[in-house]
Amino acid sequence: MAEDVFKALVDPTRRRILDELVERDGQTLFEICGRLAMKHGLGLSRQAVSQHLAVLESADLVRTRRQGRYKYHDLNTEPLERIATRWLRPDAPEKSP
Amino acid sequence: MRIHLTSIFVDDQAKALDFYTGVLGFVKKNDVPVGEQDRWLTVVSPDEPGGAELLLEPLGHPAARTYRDALVRDGIPLAQFAVDDVRAEYERLRGLGVHFTQEPVELGPVTTAVLDDTCGNLIQIVHHQEVGG
Fold it and tell me: Which residue intervals define the domain HTH arsR-type in the entry (chain A) (predicted)?
């Protein structure tokens, strides 16, 4: 749902998580926590990061996969593409560079 | 007080000894039979033979597996080892077939990576960025 996507993107920490997943897909919870803490000074509890990830997952912006004994998080940009195209006029003339 | 020994639970002590010595490059320090099957089995760094020992402990207690598997699922390492260059060590170990759950990443003052020790645990390797280099 688009509504969920907007809600998910409101929070700066969640946008930061997406930034980090752009840099590298397929991160464990441990890696995401480490990146937020060490690169951005966001010393969130593991539970708090888990909750942010759950919001991103319910908006389908993040997908999780189990691979053997590990759980990885991947970025999914499809909902963003739907938003981006939603207000674009298909017949709009292309801007010249 | 000094840290003399720390331990991790391993699925299989013989397999763990192979991995920690043959792949990671530690050396065996103590190997004493305890009971029917278990061993008091420790390894040390070849750079510090008198340094802290790592005990490769049998996964005997039923709660140990639950605890360990929960940490592994979230990618949390149980021990951290210092290396000179995480990226070089990553390449070397990958060449030996080691699986990493986290490839090398620069996190402020440190570079880290996380690998699977094939005996049920995740291990973090780390180096500190050179200051003013």
Answer: 1-95
- CB-based contacts of A54-60 (< 8 A; 24+ apart in sequence): A55/A7, A55/A8, A55/A11, A55/A14, A56/A8, A56/A14, A56/A17, A56/A18, A58/A4, A58/A8, A59/A1, A59/A4, A59/A5, A59/A7, A59/A8, A60/A4, A60/A5
Does some domain include residue A92? no
The CATH number covering residue B121 comes to 3.10.180.10
| Contact check, Cβ <8 Å, A30/B110 | no
Q: Does A96 fall in a domain? A: no
The answer to the question of residue A54 being in a domain is yes
Name the residue facing A35 among B76, B77, B107 (closest C-beta).
B107
ipTM value, please give it: 0.88
The per-residue pLDDT for A96 is 56
